[in-house]
Amino acid sequence: MLNRRDFLATGLAAGTLGYSPAQAHQPKDTYVLPEEYLPREVKLKTMLPPGEIHVDPTKYALYWTLPDNRAIRYTVGIGRAGLYHSGSFYVGAKKEWPSWTPTPDMIKRNPAAYKKFADGMPGGINNPLGARALYLFAPGRGDTYLRIHGTNNPRTIGVAVSNGCARLVNDQIIEFYDRVPMKAKVVLYPKGDGLAVHS
After folding, report:
1. Mean pLDDT per segment of 10 residues, for the chain of length 199 residues?
2. Which of 158, 155, 154, 138 is nearest to 146 (CA)?
3. Is the distance from CB of 172 to CB of 126 less than 8 angstroms?
4. Residues 136/130, Cβ–Cβ less than 8 Å
5. Torsion angles phi and psi, residue 173, rounded to 5
6. Engineered SS bond to 196: which of 26, 38, 45, 150, CB 3.0-4.6 Å?
7. The pTM is what?
8. Domains of the chain
9. Cα(16)–Cα(8) distance, rounded to whole angstroms?
10. Facing residues of 72 across strands?
C-alpha cells in the first residue's frame, strides 16, 4: 500500500506538488481528499491481465491492473442510482481538456441545469469533464456516452453523483490518462459486485 509519503515521492502525485491549472479556481477553504482516497497499490484476489480498468461502484473504486496480479486503486465518484451502467467497454477516444455537451436525456431530466449547454461547453477548469476524459465505447455501438473523467470538485469523490460516469480529481486523472492506451479494456461492475482485493 502506498502511504501519503510514498504517493508524493512517485509519479502518482504528478501535478500535486506545485501549481496546476486545477488549482487556479479552487476556493480558499480547499477540501483535502482523505488519505484513504489517495491512489494505492493493492493485491488482487481475482486473476486479471495487466493494462485493464475495472470499476467497482459499491466501493467507489477504480482499479488499473498491473503485472503480478496487482493494481493501482483510485477512489472515484460514480453515477447516481439509475444512471450507472455496468458492462464491458473499451477506450475509444481520449481527450485533454475536453469539451462537453449534455445528452438529450440529461436535458430532458433537468432542463434548468442543462438546456443552456445544449450546443456544448468548451473545455476548461469549470467543464464537468475536467482536465482529461476517456471515452467508453462498446463493440457494435461505438460511443456509449460514458466517460472516465476529471473534476475540480473533490467533494464528489467517493459518492454517487454523476450522470453515469466515473470521475477522479483532476490531478489524478492527468496522471491516469497517460497510463491508459487506446483500446484498453474497461469493465464497469454491477452495483453489489466487484473485485476482491487483499486488505
Report:
1. 37 32 45 91 95 95 97 93 86 95 85 87 89 96 94 92 85 97 96 76
2. 138
3. no
4. no
5. -70, -30
6. 45
7. 0.80
8. 4-188 (2.40.440.10)
9. 8
10. 41, 64
